[in-house]
Specification:
The complex is a heterodimer of chains A (398) and B (174).
Chain A lengths: L1 E4 L6 E7 L2 E2 L4 E2 L1 E7 L2 E8 L7 H5 L8 H5 L6 H16 L5 H29 L3 H22 L8 E2 L2 E2 L7 H23 L3 H7 L7 H6 L5 H5 L6 H4 L20 H25 L18 H6 L1 H12 L7 E9 L2 E9 L7 E5 L1 H6 L2 H5 L4 H10 L4 H5 L1
Antiparallel strand pairs in A: 1-2, 2-5, 3-4, 5-6, 7-8, 9-10, 10-11
Chain B lengths: L1 H18 L6 E5 L2 E5 L5 H10 L7 E9 L7 E9 L4 E9 L5 E3 L8 H12 L2 E3 L44
Parallel strand pairs in B: 2-5, 6-7
Antiparallel strand pairs in B: 1-2, 3-4, 4-5
Classes of the chains: A alpha+beta (398), B alpha/beta (174).
């Protein structure tokens, strides 16, 4: 802690170092806060503590190998990361994915959205002093992770969505598991709301805190619930539909107060919308049908075919040694992750390894607006504001 | 889908050409995506036009990134991905830069959100943005040498090989 004098010399301000190890930064984020009493005069975020060079590593792997790296970026949304990467590769290849696989993808990423919002709600509430909400949220998240384990064999780093489709057929008993979850979840969301929405302490800590105008939010490239809480109905699932989202019936919740409370209400409403989408996808997924595109040389052949057909064996060998080579060109795909617009830019030079892979990380870009949210506010509100933009440091630093 | 996007390409290119015939160096179409190649000197003016023109309204700068085509020249390609929320359209602006003089105008004055995007490109590719208010490294430490996302930077980095006392690879000056 140091004390420095401002240019005018009138008021004395203090520079406080917050983080990188701080429970409310949800990872390793460091913020330098210049304080005048309890008011924040200036905030300078400092990041990079989790930088792992994922974009560089992708350049040294074949297209299918890089999928496992994408899981590890935004670790609360691994399926979304898989999806955006695969959509970009499929766009480069001009590959058409079977409808059944598209619906499975939609169901999985919407389950993921709910689980991500649950982690957000639990940790945000614990930051602001509501301990029990965290326990309830993680109880339901566990159910979602169990479903992921059924489908992919993994709870978190699933790598379930693959180029051209999904990794495996839905397992036996998946309908019962998802149905049980769909039956249970709506009342649980009501339960969180009954704990928080009209809670006086919760309202006191979030209402009117962290305001940003719609113009500023767009100018600062903010997306996701933060932008929708400012009244801009921008959601990639509606504006630029992907993976057959245009066939689903759901609403984009928006509010206009643009404070922490509005962002909380948006995310709760989004959980309910996601449940609607999952229910529709549940009905659309047929029991039989292809889960992978028909593209020999790109999609690994089935095990049985490999043992009986020479051609399939050759393809298998070629895919796993050499990889496949999309035509030279560039593709940029965006999807709606729980945090905002998640984008993937891939450039190919016609070789089996990408020339460049870049992720438009919503956490990174939304974090940019943090000083705008907290300057002039009280120091206690810094915690509320960091929580409310919902950052995942693995994605910020990549 | 392809039809609407090529229509959009025509609209964007025509509107920009009627504003300044030199602004559009090339129009590229690939997989339904429109790319407008802009000369380096005109980047900021073109970006400003894209944001303000009533027929374009690209109000959201969603992404900016760099691509290194080493050893080919011009080596760097900057890609700016713009979205028009009211028109529901996307476009990509591209600027090509040579390896010997990787400097371009900053777009922070047009979209304040370009700030960290440009800092990231500066940090990882060593492109300089003139007029940027705060051009510092963002992800890497301030004393880091070299620009890791350039194609001539080894994936495994520059590091010591244990027990030999030798550098794994000799550092090339960026």
């Amino acid at each position: 802690m140091t004390t420095v004098e401002t240019a005018t010399g009138a008021a004395k301000t203090m520079v406080l170092n917050m983080g990188p190890q701080h429970p409310s930064t949800h990872g390793v984020l460091r913020i330098l806060l210049e304080l005048d009493g309890e008011t924040v005069v200036k905030a300078v975020p400092d990041l990079g503590y989790l930088h792992t060079g994922i974009e560089k590593s992708c350049e040294d792997k074949t297209y299918s190998q890089a999928i496992t790296l994408t899981d590890r970026m935004d670790y609360l949304n691994p399926l979304g990361n898989n999806l955006v990467y695969c959509l970009a590769v499929e766009k480069l290849l001009g590959l058409e994915v079977p409808k059944r696989a598209q619906y499975i993808r939609v169901m999985m990423v919407e389950l993921q959205r709910i689980s991500s919002h649950l982690v957000w709600l639990g940790t945000h509430a614990i930051d602001l002093g509501a301990m029990s909400v965290f326990l309830y949220c993680f109880r339901e998240r566990e159910e979602i992770l169990k479903i992921f384990e059924m489908f992919a064999g993994q709870r978190m780093m699933t790598s379930y969505i693959r180029i051209g489709g999904v990794a495996l057929d839905p397992p036996a008993g998946w309908r019962q598991a998802v149905e049980r979850f769909l039956k249970m979840m709506p009342s649980r969301v009501d339960e969180y709301e009954s704990l928080l929405t009209e809670n006086r302490i919760w309202m006191g800590r979030t209402k009117g805190v962290g305001y940003i105008s719609a113009e500023d939010a767009v100018a600062l490239s903010m997306t996701g619930p933060t932008l929708r809480a400012a009244g801009v109905a921008y959601d990639n699932r509606k504006v630029f539909p992907y993976s057959s989202y245009e066939e689903f019936d759901f609403d984009i919740p928006t509010r206009t107060d643009s404070d922490c409370f509005a962002r909380y209400m948006i995310r709760v409403a989004e959980m309910r919308e996601s449940l609607k989408i999952i229910r529709q996808a549940f009905g659309k997924i047929t029991n039989e049908g292809p889960i992978k595109a028909d593209a020999p040389g790109i999609i690994p052949p089935q095990r049985e075919k490999m043992k009986t057909e020479m051609e399939a064996l050759i393809y298998h060998f070629k895919i796993f040694t050499e990889g496949f080579s999309p035509a030279p060109g560039e593709a940029f795909v965006t999807i709606e992750s729980p945090r905002g617009e998640l984008g993937c830019f891939i450039a190919s030079d016609g070789s089996p390894k990408p020339l460049r892979v870049h992720f438009r990380a919503p956490s990174y870009i939304n974090l940019q607006a943090l000083p705008k949210l907290i300057e002039g506010q009280l120091i206690a509100d810094v915690i509320a504001c960091i929580g409310t933009i919902d950052i995942v440091l693995g994605e910020v630093d990549r | 889908m392809t039809e609407t996007s090529s229509q959009n390409a025509n609209v964007v290119a025509e509107l920009l050409r009627s504003w300044n015939p030199k602004a559009v160096a090339e129009v590229l179409e690939f997989r339904g995506e429109t790319t407008i190649v802009v000369p380096r000197e005109l980047l900021r003016a073109t970006a400003e036009q894209c944001r303000q023109d009533a027929g374009l309204q690209y109000n959201l700068l969603t992404d900016a990134t760099c691509l290194d085509r080493y050893p080919h020249e011009p080596r760097f390609e900057l890609n700016y991905h713009l979205v028009s929320i009211p028109r529901r359209e996307k476009v990509r602006l591209k600027v090509k830069l040579s390896g010997s003089d990787p400097v371009v105008d900053s777009l922070v004055l047009v979209w304040p959100g370009a700030n960290w995007l440009e800092r990231e490109i500066f940090d990882l590719f060593g492109i300089r943005f003139s007029g940027h208010p705060d051009l510092r490294r963002i992800l890497l430490p301030d004393d880091w040498e070299g620009y890791p996302l350039r194609r001539d930077y080894p994936v495994e980095g520059y590091r010591d090989v244990p027990n030999t006392g030798e550098l794994f690879r000799k550092s090339s000056t960026p």
